[in-house]
Amino acid sequence: MRAVVLSAPGPVENLEIRQLPIPEPEPGWVRIKVEAFGLNRSELHTRLGAAEGVTFPRVLGIECVGVVDAIPDGDLPLGQQVAAMMGGMGRTYDGGYAEYTVVPRSQVIPFHSDLPWEILGAIPETLQTAHGCLTTGLDLQAGESLLIRGGTSALGLVAAAVAKGLGATVLSTTRRADRTQALSDHGVDHALVDTGQIASVVRDLVPGGVDAALELVGTPTLPDTLAATRVHGTVCFAGLLSNEWIIPNFYPIAYLPKGVRLTAYGGDSGDLPADVLQGYLDKVAAGEITLGPTNVYRLDDIREAHADMENNRVLGKLVVRLPDSTSSSAR
In this predicted structure, what is the pLDDT of residue 291? Predict the structure, then answer.
């Protein structure tokens, strides 16, 4: 089989397409014929050497979608559509950047959908994180206001769609003025150009501050996001678009505004129930909710895709569709 192997941390040139044996699943594991996989900044961090516990060479990929190809325990039928994510994929064992992957059964979520594989490939991990941030991280309720810091990221776009579905008012940021219209077209109520200091603008729009905020940029903007949030409001830290996530010499009393709550979210496949995934897929198929742009690549273009992700060149989710020849929309 063909697989993308990271030989060692470093530049995109360290991503190599190699021929590897098709892996065999042990009891408790499932072999998936991969149809598509999404790219995530987690894999960028691994490539740059920022992830812990990774040994090399390694097939990257913390998520994929495809069909069950072999399952010793037999509790899923062959050909069943499935998503797999997290649980060490692409870090402690080989992940989804391959034509076949073997993962623990606990990481596999079955579903049924007629959506194209490249669309399905954009959904699992992004939806899991958005759903978890808005429910577990923020307990967002209908009628509340939500600020999304990093709104043109794939996660920011899905979080906005899910939040609007919950009945929230959404404010969302982008560093590029030419992308504000894309946010408005996506259904965001207030698209803001992020100068690094937007708390006063947010408070002009929402006197007293927003009820909830989703921090996807990282620690550089976190203080300003906290300042945009009302007393007894909540900020959920869940993204690292800046590649900065450490607060040096953190002193909570000085750092946190009085009465503003700070939480964080990082989930797993078990945090995305099958019925939630299925319900979301059905809404996408019915046109009731939109993902935002999906940028589709071939496996042979993995270096280009990683470079686009690293340099924030594209809006929305990056997806690789396999096999190369079957996707007319592949770049």
Answer: 83
User: How far apart are the C-alpha atoms of 61 and 92, rounded to whole Å?
Assistant: 11
Straight-line distance from the first to the last Cα atom of the chain, in angstroms, rounded to the nearest whole number: 22
Say what the pTM is: 0.89
Run of H or E including 145: strand 145-149
DSSP one-letter string for 160-196: HHHHHHHT-EEEEEES-GGGHHHHHHTT-SEEEE--S
Q: How far apart are CA 30 and CA 81, in angstroms?
A: 12
Separation between Cα atoms, residue 316 and residue 244, nearest integer Å: 21
Among residues 205, 242, 252, the alpha carbon closest in space to that of 221 is found at 242
Cα 274 from Cα 225, distance rounded (Å): 33
State the pairing for strand pair 2-6/58-59.
antiparallel
3-state secondary structure of 2: strand
Please name which of 196, 188, 225 lies closest in space to residue 210, comparing C-alpha atoms: 225
Contact 321, 297 (CB under 8 A): yes
**145-149 and 169-174 strand pairing:** parallel
* Vertex 279: Cα angle to 89 and 324 (nearest 5): 50
CB 69 within 8 A of CB 31: yes
Q: Give the separation between CA 213 and CA 159, rounded to whole angstroms.
A: 11
DSSP string, 9-48: SSSGGGEEEEE-PPPPPPTTEEEEEEEEEE--HHHHHHHT
Q: Is the pLDDT of residue 331 over 80?
A: no
Measure Cα distances from 33 to 4, 111, 195 in Å.
15, 15, 44
For the segment 185-222, what is each residue's pLDDT rounded down to a tens digit? 999 999 999 999 999 999 999 999 999 999 999 999 99
In the DSSP assignment, the letter for residue 146 is E
What is the reported pLDDT for 231?
98
Spell out the domains of the chain, with CATH numbers in brackets: 2-123+291-326 (3.90.180.10), 126-264 (3.40.50.720)
